[in-house]
Design goal:
5-stranded mixed beta sheet; 21% strand
Length: 317
């Protein structure tokens, strides 16, 4: 892979999505007309928001994990002789009192300049990623991206975004508020539901106006839902070979119900749930069923493309 000349059809780029729970690195080459070839795709469970997400601070241990991961990513970027690098930071770094300090230290210690984006930009990139996966149609869809710090909702179709908004109700925040006992108590689920009722009024108004007919889950927990369902049916499932997956509604509802009642030990033993999602998948399940019921959405699709693929499409265009 060394010393390949840069041509318009062979641009090599690296995208990092620095989330509250997970840091992702995607190195790819190609152009936007022919798509891209993935060279490296790794994710590290950094848990940057651990112990501090609702206090608005990155705790020292998490801070160091983040720096070490960025140094690790930089070694891949150098080894693959990348032409252009983009590191995107979202909710946890955006809202932390020491977020700017983290950005400065990453530049000093890993040589990577982090770009801080707001919730609106985050939602726009997610839409572009979902669009690139090919799962949008003429019908209006509600895209939901459940992050650790925030959840992005986008209503749109293959031609345009009709409405988008980011809400600071990510899985790490909800765990901190509602999921301190395992399995999560029924009372906590009721409190979580009331909390979402109050937080998502703008979404309900937008849904009344634009009437989405399908829910598209953007990567994250939805990948785990799909993988668990397929593995339990005895089928092989390769996320790297999957862009889009359509859920059987009964399968999804059955799994969500089981996850809501599950213990930490049970989730750890469940094939298809990666370690960083073992705890966040409970609140992610509860948000998912909440949205399905609240908006009457029974058609649910998962796209493995998300923010980083949206940024990638932008860089290669």
């Amino acid at each position: 892979m060394q010393n390949e000349s840069v041509t318009t059809s062979n641009k090599r780029v690296a995208v990092m999505d620095l989330g509250t729970n997970t840091f992702h690195l995607l190195i790819a080459e190609g152009d936007n007309t022919d798509g891209f070839k993935e060279l490296v795709h790794i994710h590290e469970g950094v848990k940057l928001g651990e112990g501090g997400i609702n206090k608005g601070i990155i705790q020292p241990v998490a801070f160091e994990r983040g720096i070490a991961t960025m140094q690790h990513f930089q070694s891949y970027i150098q080894a693959h002789e990348v032409h252009e690098v983009k590191a995107i930071a979202t909710s946890a770094i955006r809202n932390a009192a020491n977020g700017q300090d983290f950005i400065v230290q990453v530049k000093e210690k890993a040589g990577i300049q982090i770009e801080l984006i707001n919730g609106e930009q985050e939602a726009a990139y997610i839409y572009n990623g979902i669009k690139a996966s090919g799962c949008l149609t003429n019908e209006n869809a509600l895209v939901m991206d459940i992050g650790g710090g925030s959840v992005e909702f986008i209503i749109g179709n293959k031609d345009e975004v009709l409405w988008k908004q980011s809400f600071e109700i990510g899985a790490a925040r909800l765990i901190d508020k509602f999921h301190q006992t395992d399995p999560i108590p029924v009372q906590s689920i009721k409190e979580l539901t009331r909390y979402l009722d109050g937080k998502l009024i703008d979404l309900f108004q937008a849904a009344l106006q634009h009437k989405p007919s399908i829910l598209i889950g953007s990567s994250g927990a939805f990948e785990s839902f799909a993988e668990v369902i397929e593995l339990e049916k005895g089928r092989s499932f390769d996320l790297k070979q999957t862009k889009v997956y359509e859920f059987d509604t009964d399968d999804l509802l059955n799994l969500i119900e089981r996850l809501a009642k599950s213990t930490h030990h049970k989730r750890v033993a469940t094939k298809g749930i990666i370690p960083v999602r073992v705890d966040m998948i409970v609140v992610a399940s509860l948000i998912t069923i909440y949205i399905m019921q609240k908006l009457g959405l029974t058609d649910v699709t998962m796209s493995t493309y998300s923010l980083k693929e949206g940024v990638l499409a932008d860089m290669l265009s």
